[in-house]
Write a structure and sequence with these properties.
heterodimer; A: about 325 residues; mainly alpha; MetI-like fold; 2 domains; 16 helices; 2 strands; globular; B: about 290 residues; 15 helices
Chain lengths: ~325, ~290
């Protein structure tokens, strides 16, 4: 009795919604028209591939396609999680991203604070322009820079070391075969490329701090360093937490564009630089194993989503202004 | 007394740090420029340097011997210009609709977009969709369509539009204007800094595009500039296949290293030239749009 009643009520509600949706479209026809191309884009290029995740549970055969390939359950996942690769690539992804996040945060804030302390307008403008510039260079060009700097026979670093007599002819550092150097190299490159650009938002946040706070502190005898550590830094907290949250949200996604452009298919360096994304990409190109690489991608997206929700939950608890949603 | 010492220390540190960081950022550019202007033999002897060794333009003469660079330039310019315009139209249309408070389903649609930032089907399903089901391989549209709307840019623009007073659109509506007219004639002219910012982001994104080409492009005529760089960098063999290197084999030394550098310089040039003009806009646009709203 109750069930029937509630069903009836539901159907009434649905009917009402449908009707109101149609009248809504009529009323806001142009707004719907404006939003339509974007919605179609997201549906086709973002949501359809999500449907394509069924491949992860199939033994995909490109002749048979999505609908007729054989279902194999969790076998693709099983295979990945029993190989030793999964720990290596998961670890590298997290390890590199955390280091990128922390060093990026540090240098972006440092640049922003230092810039805000500089009084010469001209100097400030020129240096700011220069440190932002690398953000707009592609990673493929960066890989060219890396070659110019690190190449064994013609690289700048090796030729400088030779010129100053630190190493002899034949003792050149062979960067491209030493995986231990690459965590550091990748971090330096990341700082080079994005720390300056990252400082823009912090600089804006600093500009938004009420000047009266500084003046009041000055009257109370606060020194410049104290103003920085006791006023500027605490005022940046919300921005820092928000941007860190964004960063943590992406922590399970390796920077494929960066790492593939710079390391490429150099097996010597996989040990420290191979992340989930480069692994998936390689699996697609070299083994052409569609199902397996989709399964790994699925694992990545799912864990990534969980991480976003968990970090947002803690942000809300800690400081509700900083939560993303 | 103590304060003035501290002042000096902070000033010194600030200026020194920015000077050093700027040098750190600019040195690689100088290095590739000077290396591209060096003589290959000198480079092979003592390596790249910050000042050209035995000034020579051979590396540039070599890359301009045939059309490879020009074709890549043409392809890249076409999809950058067309792509940026399309992206900005679709993005601003969506952002405007989602910024209108009377638009009933705007929050649902915003979440529909936002969710794609949290979860994705991943590389392989997208690859299958684009190459197998949409048949966009070796088609210049593959550079444009898969990245048509960047959710981050869309929300940035929406937040900017939200700050424009509703009264402007309302009074236009009373005069009988529709939303499309309002967007193009009233809202967009007011949103120049924000539009310049996302235009710059989209434009540079297209200009720096190479990953799409590794996945979907085989046809040499459709290589993007950055993909060409990648090929020149990665595959020494590829350089020998290029017509321009075959012309160069007549001389004793094949300018392998310097040609890499001159190719890099030729592709980075336009960014350096356009950058100062756009920079003044994007800092402003980014700051206003990024305020949480």
């Amino acid at each position: 009795m109750n069930v029937a009643l509630s069903n009836k009520a539901d159907s009434v509600v649905i009917k009402k919604n449908k009707k109101s949706f149609l009248t809504d479209v009529k009323q806001n026809f142009y707004l719907y028209l404006l939003v339509l191309p974007g919605v179609l884009y997201f549906f086709i290029f973002k949501y359809l591939p999500m449907v394509g995740l069924v491949v992860a549970f199939q033994d995909f055969n490109s002749v048979k396609g999505f609908f007729k390939s054989k279902f194999v359950g969790l076998k693709n996942f099983e295979y990945f999680f029993t190989s030793k690769d999964w720990l290596v690539v998961t670890w590298n992804t997290l390890y590199l991203n955390i280091l990128f996040l922390v060093t990026g945060l540090f240098f972006s804030i440092l640049i922003a604070i230092v810039l805000s302390e500089i009084t010469s307008k001209h100097f400030k403008k020129v240096t700011q322009s220069i440190v932002i510039l690398p953000n707009f260079i592609s990673w493929t060009l960066v890989s060219m820079f890396v070659f110019a700097l690190l190449s064994t026979d013609v690289g700048y670093i090796n030729s400088i070391l030779k010129a100053f007599g630190f190493i002899q002819e034949g003792q050149e550092i062979n960067f491209y075969s030493n995986p231990n150097l690459w965590v550091g190299i990748l971090i330096v490159l990341k700082i080079w490329k994005s720390a300056g650009f990252g400082s823009v938002i912090y600089l804006a946040a600093i500009a938004g701090i009420d000047q009266e706070i500084y003046e009041a502190a000055k009257i109370d005898g606060a020194s410049r360093l104290q103003s920085i550590t006791k006023i500027t830094l605490p005022q940046l907290k919300t921005t820092v937490v928000l941007l860190t949250l964004f960063g943590i949200g992406g922590i399970f996604h390796g920077d494929l564009g960066m790492i593939y452009a710079i390391v490429g298919d150099n097996p010597n360096l996989y040990e420290t630089t191979d992340v989930i994304d480069t692994y998936v990409f390689r699996m697609l190109r070299q083994m052409n194993d569609i199902s397996m690489s989709t399964a790994i991608g699925f694992y990545q997206s799912l864990v990534g989503l969980i991480i976003v929700y968990v970090s947002n939950y803690f942000a809300k608890k800690y400081d509700s202004d900083s939560a993303i949603f | 007394m103590k304060n003035s010492l501290e002042n000096k220390a902070i000033d010194t540190f600030s200026y020194l740090f920015m000077a050093l960081f700027s040098i750190f950022c600019i040195v690689p550019f100088i290095l590739i420029l000077s290396s591209s202007l060096s003589d290959e033999k000198a480079v092979q002897l003592t390596g790249f340097a910050l000042i050209p060794k035995h000034f020579s333009l051979t590396a540039y003469e070599v890359i301009f011997q045939d059309n490879t660079i020009f074709t890549a330039y043409k392809t890249t310019i076409i999809f950058t210009v067309v792509g940026t315009i399309l992206c900005m139209i679709v993005t601003s249309a969506m952002a405007y609709a989602l910024s209108v408070k009377t638009f009933t389903h705007r929050n649902k649609i915003a979440f529909f977009v936002y969710f794609t930032m949290l979860f994705s089907g991943g590389l392989i399903p997208s690859y299958l969709l684009i190459s197998k089901y949409l048949g966009l391989s070796d088609n210049i549209l593959v550079y444009i369509l898969p990245g048509l709307v960047n959710p981050f840019n869309m929300f940035l623009l929406r937040n900017f539009f939200k700050q424009i007073p509703d009264s402007l659109a309302e009074s236009a509506k009373i005069d009988g204007a529709n939303d499309i007219y309002i967007l193009f004639k009233i809202i967009l002219p007011l949103a120049k800094p924000a539009m310049a910012t996302i235009g710059l982001f989209y434009g540079l994104g297209f200009w720096n595009e190479w990953f799409t080409a590794t996945l979907f492009i085989d046809n040499k005529d459709l290589y993007s500039l950055q993909y060409l760089i990648m090929k020149v960098m990665r595959e020494v063999d590829f350089m020998y296949q290029l017509d321009y290197m075959q012309g160069a084999t007549v001389s004793y030394v094949l300018p392998r290293n310097t040609v890499r550098m001159s190719t890099a310089v030729v592709t980075v040039g336009p960014i350096i030239f356009v950058y100062p003009f756009l920079q003044k806009y994007f800092v402003k646009g980014l700051v206003v749009g990024a305020v949480k709203g």
